[in-house]
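User: Can you predict the 3D structure for this chain?
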Amino acid sequence: MLSQFLNSRTIAVRQRAWDKAQAIRIAGELLVKQKLIDEKYIDEMVQAVEKLGPYIVLSPGIAFAHARPSQLVQRDCVSLVTLDPPVAFGHPRNDPVSVLFVLAARQANQHLSVMRDLAKLIIRPDFLPAMAQAGSEEELLKYLRSVDAQS
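Assistant: Here is the predicted structure, written as structure tokens:
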């Protein structure tokens, strides 16, 4: 469940970013501060989006930044940032992004269950409204925990 990876220190609401790189850096810094990833992993995520394009924008308003599994990751982790105002990532249909997840994994395939949980979460009709209405990290955690309890 995603809520086991997220806490008030790995979530930030209503963050202001002027571009996709800064948005990814904001979300990644939450994990750096917790000593879960190295700063260089953030650079790898930004480079991946610059090189490969906006493939991380999964659905309208939602992006999922990551890089290859790496030893720059201390343990599998996730951060969540809501962006206000939303940020253009360059996706022709799903821009702008208002919710950004970062997933960092140490080894290939270990993060697949987190990706499945994320997929289940973002198809919920109440997901984007809950993200937009949350005024605090605690409100987002409460929502995520309620979703976990329903699963």
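The mean pLDDT is 91. Residues 9 and 33 are 9 Å apart (CA to CA).
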